[in-house]
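A quick aside before the break. I want you to see a complete sequence-to-structure record at least once, exactly as it would be stored in a machine-readable document. Don't worry about memorizing anything.
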Amino acid sequence: MFEIRTEASFSAAHHLRDYDGPCENVHGHNWLVRVAMRCRELNDAGIGIDFRTLRGALAAILSELDHTYLNQVLGETGMNPSSENIARYVYGKLQERVGTDNCRVARVEVFETPGNSATYYQDDDA
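That is the input. The structure line, written in tokens, reads:
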């Protein structure tokens, strides 16, 4: 099994619903998103998934979030825009774009501030 990783960032505003504290107010972050893909086999060139393909797919997803109000974007899915739900959202979108039988999203980690992150993964390959 091989793991291929990349990261990218975006800036956006949000507020947390059903939260008692300062994050219930509208505020913004410079989010960092790290993704990992797991590939069972390599192609003839010795590559599981091309970094260019992975970075391009992640950039396209994050461009839909960049400089937006995340409550509107994730609100359409019924999700509160927490770091956890942003990680789950990116995971699903990335799997739709680049996931195959050989190579799938292993996890997505979202940092809302340096040192504070949430990770989403599906524990189905034990």
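Two observations worth writing down. The longest helix spans residues 83-98. The mean pLDDT is 95. We'll return to this after the break.
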